[in-house]
Every structure is written in structure tokens, then in C-alpha cells.
């Protein structure tokens, strides 16, 4: 292939074009903004063409006509002689989905798909938490079992969504929206919630058992649909493999047997899809068994008035097996016991599962972690058999009332305790997660969590008397011990100041996942109840004399007719399990506190409007004297406000945790209290419920708007870009990892250009010896590029491939990814200086950033692999651009005295009017072309190390 390159001299006129054979591939990779290929190449859409890939991942290059257009000196579209410029587009993998068999759908189906993608966001956050633990921690008795803790938390999220769906289907619709069959003269009717669609009226003709069995089956189906959202569709790209590996050319030849590769470089890291799929069976088994146990519990105690409330449950003799056998309730009791056994086994298998590839020397790198699915499949089979038996038994239970006879009892037994029990367990795991990066041993936190949970449960079942005091004391002491031990261990961890949230990243991310899951759960339940309650006006809550007379007349005229009356139930309002309303109150209070924090932070920023933010933190900076200087300073202050995101996210996580605790500790929303406090409490309950319903409306609106341009675009695309980068290892229903295709695909392109994939090149070995690759990556694309270069370490050239260079700009490698995931992108992996994180209240959030230059490292690092031997043409084949006006772009090594980082201009010199640039426009900066030329020259002069 030949390309015409133009080179401009100072006269402003191009020289005579000379044909050049490209020897350097400049491969641009976009970031979170999902920049189109034409914009990446600084060309119009009609000036680029796709040269490889498909609609999900594709490589683009300038057309022949665009490449032949002469450019002025300094034009960002100018390509240096001998350089082939391509753009790699991967954004569709993170943001698009499809319905199997339907392809591109729109309308109601597309809206439902987008809504389901919103529901699995907490699962994705749990997966991110999995990778924030110490991934290099050795296994054994001294291990913290951090991965098992996060996977157990993910299992609780699945069960929470089961409780949510069951609350809507069984607790609200089944137990409250369909009243008992009532006869009035010759007319038999069933009261039905008026808001239900017309096709639901047919279910009123069924017996109570048949209708309940159908709702149980519908609950299971909804859960399966939710599980399938992240596992089906056009995103089946997880199993892609680079051409180099597929041909067996990746064997780790360059690895020092005495060393340890970073996690991202270990073979098997990007193939979690096959190993983590085993959790899919365990989660479904636990969910189906929980559903079967919930229904069995209801039928076990529905007709026993003294056993419909949990307080003092055991003290009232409700656990007497002899009574079960005498009353014919023993099968239901056995079903509850079997369900508990299946859930316990699924939790045990989930916590004990090991998914990560092994570390260590070269001899262990060929080993794969093989996971057997046999036990999980057997558990799923047992859960399905149990659930099938329950559905059949319920269907044959007749037409008796589904609700307990005691009007003060919950409509469906167990639905009060199940969500709150799950929330309590999530809170305990979040507290334990505070110390797992500091290697809080599993032998410590597991007994404390179990003792707290068991003690609290027994304190509820035997709430009165001496035993109630004993169990409450045990639970309280264990809870305090767990909290103190986790905090103290975390405080003692060395180097925690340079880790995300002071080394408490897993706890922060799990709190966010649990809080968001409960927000969506409460919004779904309270929103459904508000919808069903809306038509419950006075005229719909009673059967008027005129209506009754009309029914009698209709029955007299047509004796074969069996009319069904559709109207609101007799109760003024539908009953909601209290935990949801308590969480709504706590979460609204948390939102108010967050707003207050943001207001205070905004005021603090406003008071600093005259503060000068220097280019280098701690350096000297003259006060602005021109309009351009003032505009740059204003942009730097705005960027500094956004760069406090880590602290703000930590505050949101704390508020989420407090809201979860509030759903357990706040008073009963339906209880009445006297005085002013009672009035305020009732007002808070009413307003918070309305606020949650309004929040649900905003979520739905945002989902609809998010898909207005593309029917199946996932809502809030930026979140998917960040959340789906790492392999799915903690929750099987989480969205798939697009990097499991992006990294192998990008590697394959590099290997093909360099001839490392075994494909013959034109010109043979001479061409192969001349060719070089320069990865040019923006923002999150820098993370993709780093992962790709590390993945190539097992190739023919090993870690020190002199033919590859890296140019990053506006990236978050050091400030965010290196702090949140130290074992993946931290200083020990990149070979750069650690970052202490942004300050919250300081005028310059990076005033404490200057870090000492790290000493020599014995293990291989990315920077070391991009460093040429002494005496070469240049020391480092990595350059990174940053600017203080970039709100999410930072240096990768340091603001000053760095061999890698280069400050970029903050004003667009080509703009007609003054324009201060932020996160975009790096390739148009003059520093980009300067560093590009430097790296190209370095690569051409580089030689393999001996």
C-alpha cells in the first residue's frame, strides 16, 4: 500500500509530493464520549472509510481522496510522512443492545428493554467492587476472601430483586387487588383493582389457588428475563480471541520465570465469561428456592393467627413440628426447610468460587482456573423441582382467601421480613468490606457477620423475656466488634492514602450498589402501589345500591352470565411492606444532605473565584492580566470542582449506607405518634413516598429520552462505558464486558500490522523489521490501550517490545483507575508515581499531589516495557498530554518532573473567538503533533534490547 504524504516548509507551500510506504501505524482510540471515527481523524464523515470490523467494533482510515488533499503546516489533519492513521471505534459495544430474534425493535418493546438495563446497574456496580479488592491477595487461611464477600453481596442483590417482584405480584396484586369471591343473590363477583388492565379481569374467574400459582410462575419468569438481559442479544462478543492467541503464538516467551506479571497481562484475564457463567446457575437456584420458601411459609402460617407476626414468633410455639404434622401443614414446613438448604448451598458455592487466573512465575501462567458447573446445575434442578411442587400445590389449594383471616396481619406472610433481612445482610457485608483491602481475615469477618445476623434473627423470634435480651446483646456486640475491627484494620493499611477512598473502595462501591438497588426496588413497589391506588376514589371503593341492582337485573335476564365486577378493593389504600417506606424517608433525607453538601461546596468554590490555580500544583502562577488569562483561570476552577468527584461519590455511598440502615431502624410508617414529632413523621412518610414515585417518573423519562435517537441505546451511556470495562466476575446478571472483545480485537490489529499473528507481510521480514505501532488514546481509551499493551506481553516479543509506543491524553489512569484498581492500573503496574487523590476543600484539589519519584522496581511495569535501553535515541516511548482545564483528564505520572507527562495548551489557537478547551480537542493542540513526531522518530530508531 502506498500513501501520498505532504511536508510543509516555512514558506507555507507544500513540497512536491513523494510516495511513501507507511511503516508506522498511528492507531487512535476514543474515550467515554464515543467520538465518531471521522471526528477522531479530524475529517468529515464522507472522508473516512471502514477498513475492518463490524457494526460493534470497527477500524477506519481516511479515504484516498482525503489523504491526497494538501494540508497547511500545523493542520491537525496532516499525517506525518510514512504514517498510516487509523481510528478504532468500540463505543457501540458498551451502549447498544438487541432483543434476540427481533433485532432492531422500537416502541414499547424498546422501552421495556431500556428499563431492564436500568435495573441491572446495581449488578454492574457490584462487579466493579469485585475488582477494587486486593486482587493479588494470596488464598488460604489468612485470606480476606474479598472476592467471595462481593459475590455474596451480588447474590443478595438478586434475592432483593426477587423480593421486589414478589412484593408486587404476590403481596400487592395477588393478595390485595383480587378480593375473595362474594355472592350477592344470584350474582357472584370478585373485587379487582380498577387500575389493572382489562385482560387481568379474566383471572378473577379463576380460583385463588390457580391465580396465585400463575403469579408465582410469573414472578419466576420476570426474574429469568432480568437474568437474560445481560446475557443475550447482539453483545455476544465476550468469547472473541485475538488472532495471535487463536493461532497459538502467545506463549509468554518474554517472561522472566522469576518475576510476576501484572494481572492484566496474565493469560486468562479476558476470558472470565466462560468461568463466571457458573454463577448464573447458583443465582437462579437461590432465587427459585427463595421464592418457593416464601410461598411455602405463607401457606404454612396463613391460617394460624398467632404466627402471622415475626415479633415473638418462637415464643408463641410457632416452630412446633408436632403441630405442623397434626394440622396437615408438614409438607409446607418441609418445603421451607428444603428451600433454606438450597439457598445455603448456593451461597456457600458462590462464596467459595474462585475465578481469577493465577499469578506467580512463568510455570503457572499456562494454568487456567477450571470451574465445574455440575454442583450448580444440580442445585438449580433441585430448586426447579421444589418450585414446581409449590406451584402445583398452590394451584390445587382451592378458592380460600389468600390473605390471613386476621385483618391486622400482612397480606402475604414473609414479604415484610425478606427485604429487610436482605438489607440487613447487605449492611453487614458493607461494614466487613471496609477492611478487606487491608486483609481483614475471613476467619474474623465471616463469624462476626453470621453471629450478628443469627443473633438479630433470634432476637426478633424471641423478642420477649430473658432470651430476647440475650440475643439482642449478642447481635449488638458482634455488630460493634465487626465495625471497629474493620475500621481499625483499614486505618493500619500502609499506602492507603494513595488508594481510592483511603483503601475502602470495595465498601464504597458495594454501598452504592446496595443503595441504588434499594432505590429502584422502593420506586418499583411504591410506584406500582401509587398507580393501583390512584383510581381508588370513594365511588370506586363501595358497591353502590344502583350498581348492585343493575347486577341483579342482568343476572335475572341472563342466568348463564357470571359477571365480574371490576373496581377498587374495600380498603382505602393498598398495604406496602414497611421497609420500602422507611427507606424512602431515609433516602429523601440523604438527598437533602447531599444537596446541602453541594451547596456548601459551591459556596466554597465561589469564595475562591479570585484564587489563582497554577499549572503545576504548588507552583507559582501570576495573577491574570488579560481576558484570556481570566477565562483560563475560571475554567481551571470549574475543572477543579469536578475533580472532587471521588470525595463526592464517597459521600453519596455513606448516605446510601445510612439510608439502608434507616430502612431497618426507623419507626413503622403506619404507626401513629402523638405531638409535633408524630405529625412531622406522618408528613415525612407521605412526602417521601411521593418523592420516590416522582423519582421513578424521572427515571422512566430519562430512559425514554436516552433511547430517542437509537431504539435500543442503553440509558446513560457514559455509565456503561465506565462500568462495563472490567470482566463480569461478581454477578452473572451484570452487563457483559465489552473489553473482552475490545482488547483482543485491538491487539489483533497491532499484531497483524507488526506481523506477529503469523500472517505473511508484503516484503517479508524486511517489512516486518521496519514496522512500528503508535497507540494514540484519549480518556478511557488510554485504559483500553494500557490493557492491550499488557495483553501483548505473552506474544513473541514479550514485555519489552521496542516496536510499540503510546501517546495518551486526557486520561484517568493515575488519578482514578490507578487509585480504585491498584492491582490492575496502580503504580506497581504502570511504573508511575502514586497519587494521593484530590482534596475536598482546598482551592487546588491537587495541592498535595507532588509525589517522590519511585525507586527501581524488580517486577516488570508498563513504563519499564516502554523504556529503551540506555544510550538509545530516546528514553521513554510513552507521552501523555494533560491540561488543568480538563475536568476528567490528569497526568499519568506527575504534574512536574515527569518523563512522560506534557502539559497541553488550554486555548484553541485556531478558534475565531476565544475558546478555552477542556476534555476534547487534544489532537488539535500543537503539543500533540510535537510529541507525535518525537515518538515516531523514537520508534523508527528503536532497536530490540539485548
Automatic annotation (TrEMBL):
Coiled coil: none annotated. Keywords: Membrane, Transmembrane, Transmembrane helix. The chain crosses the membrane at residues 108-131, 152-175, 213-235, 280-300, 330-348, 377-397, 417-436, 443-463, 469-489, 509-532, 583-603, 648-666, 678-706. This is Integral membrane protein. It comes from Cellulomonas uda.
Amino acid at each position: 500500500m502506498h500513501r501520498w504524504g505532504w511536508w510543509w516548509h516555512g514558506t507555507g507551500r507544500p513540497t512536491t509530493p513523494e510516495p511513501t510506504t507507511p511503516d508506522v501505524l498511528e492507531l487512535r482510540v476514543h474515550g467515554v464520549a464515543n467520538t465518531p471515527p471521522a471526528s477522531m481523524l479530524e475529517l468529515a464523515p464522507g472522508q473516512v472509510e471502514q477498513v475492518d470490523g463490524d457494526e460493534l467494533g470497527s477500524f477506519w482510515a481516511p479515504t484516498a481522496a482525503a489523504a491526497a488533499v494538501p494540508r497547511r503546516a500545523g493542520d491537525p489533519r496532516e499525517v506525518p510522512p510514512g504514517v498510516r492513521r487509523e481510528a478504532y471505534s468500540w463505543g457501540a459495544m458498551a451502549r447498544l443492545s438487541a432483543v434476540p430474534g427481533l433485532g432492531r425493535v422500537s416502541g414499547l418493546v424498546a422501552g421495556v428493554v431500556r428499563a431492564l438495563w436500568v435495573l441491572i446497574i446495581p449488578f454492574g456496580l457490584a462487579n466493579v467492587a469485585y475488582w477494587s479488592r486486593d486482587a493479588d491477595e494470596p488464598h488460604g487461611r489468612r485470606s480476606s476472601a474479598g472476592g467471595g464477600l462481593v459475590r455474596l453481596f451480588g447474590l443478595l442483590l438478586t434475592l432483593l430483586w426477587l423480593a421486589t417482584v414478589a412484593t408486587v405480584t404476590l403481596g400487592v396484586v395477588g393478595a390485595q387487588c383480587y378480593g375473595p369471591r362474594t355472592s350477592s343473590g344470584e350474582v357472584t363477583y370478585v373485587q379487582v383493582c380498577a387500575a389493572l388492565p382489562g385482560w387481568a379481569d379474566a383471572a378473577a374467574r379463576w380460583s385463588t389457588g390457580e391465580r396465585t400459582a400463575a403469579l408465582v410462575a410469573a414472578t419466576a419468569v420476570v426474574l429469568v428475563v432480568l437474568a437474560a438481559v445481560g446475557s443475550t442479544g447482539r453483545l455476544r462478543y465476550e468469547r472473541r480471541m485475538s488472532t495471535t492467541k487463536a493461532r497459538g503464538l502467545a506463549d509468554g516467551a518474554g517472561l522472566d520465570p522469576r518475576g510476576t506479571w501484572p494481572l492484566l497481562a496474565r493469560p486468562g484475564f479476558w476470558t472470565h465469561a466462560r468461568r463466571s457463567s457458573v454463577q448464573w446457575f447458583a443465582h437462579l437456584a437461590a432465587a427459585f428456592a427463595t421464592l418457593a420458601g416464601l410461598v411455602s411459609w405463607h401457606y404454612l402460617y396463613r391460617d394460624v393467627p398467632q404466627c402471622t407476626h415475626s415479633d415473638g414468633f418462637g415464643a408463641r410455639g410457632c416452630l412446633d413440628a408436632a403441630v405442623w404434622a397434626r394440622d396437615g401443614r408438614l409438607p409446607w414446613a418441609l418445603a421451607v426447610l428444603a428451600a433454606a438448604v438450597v439457598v445455603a448451598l448456593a451461597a456457600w458455592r458462590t462464596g467459595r468460587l474462585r475465578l481469577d487466573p493465577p499469578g506467580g512465575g512463568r510455570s503457572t501462567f499456562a494454568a487456567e482456573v477450571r470451574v465445574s458447573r455440575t454442583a450448580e446445575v444440580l442445585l438449580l434442578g433441585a430448586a426447579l423441582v421444589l418450585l414446581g411442587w409449590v406451584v402445583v400445590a398452590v394451584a390445587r389449594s382451592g378458592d380460600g382467601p389468600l390473605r390471613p383471616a386476621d385483618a391486622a396481619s400482612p397480606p402475604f406472610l414473609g414479604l415484610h421480613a425478606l427485604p429487610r433481612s436482605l438489607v440487613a445482610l447487605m449492611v453487614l457485608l458493607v461494614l466487613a468490606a471496609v477492611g478487606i483491602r487491608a486483609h481483614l481475615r475471613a476467619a474474623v469477618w465471616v463469624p462476626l457477620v453470621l453471629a450478628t445476623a443469627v443473633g438479630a434473627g433470634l432476637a426478633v423470634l424471641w423478642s420477649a423475656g430473658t432470651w430476647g435480651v440475650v440475643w439482642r446483646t449478642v447481635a449488638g456486640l458482634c455488630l460493634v466488634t465487626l465495625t471497629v475491627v474493620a475500621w481499625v484494620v483499614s486505618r493500619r493499611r500502609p499506602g492507603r492514602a494513595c488508594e481510592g477512598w483511603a483503601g475502602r473502595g470495595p465498601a464504597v462501591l458495594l454501598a452504592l450498589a446496595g443503595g441504588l438497588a434499594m432505590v429502584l426496588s422502593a420506586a418499583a413497589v411504591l410506584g406500582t402501589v401509587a398507580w393501583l391506588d390512584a383510581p381508588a376514589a370513594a365511588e370506586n371503593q363501595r358497591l353502590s345500591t344502583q350498581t348492585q341492582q343493575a347486577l341483579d337485573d342482568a343476572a335475572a335476564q341472563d342466568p348463564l352470565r357470571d359477571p365480574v365486577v371490576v373496581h377498587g378493593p374495600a380498603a382505602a389504600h393498598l398495604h406496602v411492606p414497611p421497609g420500602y417506606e422507611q427507606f424512602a424517608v431515609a433516602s429523601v433525607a440523604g438527598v437533602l444532605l447531599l444537596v446541602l453538601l453541594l451547596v456548601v461546596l459551591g459556596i466554597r468554590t465561589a469564595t475562591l473565584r479570585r484564587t489563582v490555580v497554577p499549572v503545576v500544583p504548588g507552583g507559582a502562577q501570576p495573577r491574570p492580566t488579560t481576558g484570556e488569562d481570566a477565562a483560563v483561570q475560571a475554567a481551571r476552577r470549574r475543572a477543579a470542582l469536578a475533580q472532587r468527584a471521588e470525595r463526592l461519590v464517597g459521600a453519596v455511598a455513606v448516605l446510601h449506607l445510612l439510608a439502608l440502615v434507616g430502612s431497618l431502624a426507623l419507626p413503622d410508617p403506619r404507626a401513629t405518634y402523638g405531638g409535633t414529632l408524630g405529625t412531622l413523621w406522618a408528613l415525612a412518610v407521605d412526602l417521601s413516598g411521593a418523592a420516590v414515585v416522582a423519582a421513578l417518573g424521572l427515571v422512566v423519562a430519562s430512559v425514554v429520552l436516552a433511547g430517542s435517537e437509537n431504539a435500543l441505546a442503553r440509558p446513560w451511556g457514559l455509565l456503561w462505558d465506565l462500568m462495563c470495562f472490567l470482566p463480569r466476575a461478581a454477578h452473572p446478571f451484570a452487563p457483559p464486558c465489552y473489553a473482552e472483545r475490545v482488547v483482543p480485537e485491538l491487539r489483533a490489529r497491532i499484531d497483524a500490522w507488526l506481523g506477529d499473528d503469523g500472517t505473511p507481510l508484503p516484503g517479508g521480514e524486511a517489512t516486518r523489521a521496519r514496522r512500528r505501532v503508535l497507540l494514540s488514546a484519549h480518556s478511557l481509551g488510554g485504559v483500553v490501550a494500557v490493557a492491550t499493551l499488557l495483553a501483548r506481553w505473552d506474544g513473541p516479543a514479550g514485555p519489552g517490545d521496542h516496536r510499540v509506543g503510546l501517546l495518551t491524553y486526557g486520561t484517568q489512569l493515575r488519578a482514578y483507575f490507578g487509585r480504585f484498581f491498584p492491582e490492575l492500573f496502580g503504580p506497581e503496574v504502570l511504573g508511575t508515581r502514586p497519587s494521593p487523590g484530590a482534596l475536598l476543600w482546598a482551592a487546588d484539589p491537587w495541592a498535595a499531589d507532588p509525589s517522590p519519584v519511585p525507586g527501581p522496581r524488580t517486577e516488570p511495569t508498563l513504563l519499564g516495557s516502554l523504556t529503551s535501553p540506555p544510550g538509545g535515541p530516546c528514553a521513554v516511548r510513552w507521552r501523555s498530554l494533560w491540561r488543568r482545564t480538563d475536568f476528567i483528564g490528569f497526568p499519568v505520572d506527575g504534574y512536574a518532573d515527569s518523563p512522560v507527562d506534557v502539559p497541553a495548551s488550554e486555548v484553541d489557537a485556531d478558534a475565531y473567538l476565544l475558546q478555552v478547551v477542556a476534555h476534547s480537542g487534544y489532537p488539535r493542540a500543537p503539543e500533540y503533533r510535537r510529541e507525535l513526531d518525537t515518538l515516531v522518530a523514537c520508534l523508527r530508531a528503536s532497536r530490540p534490547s539485548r
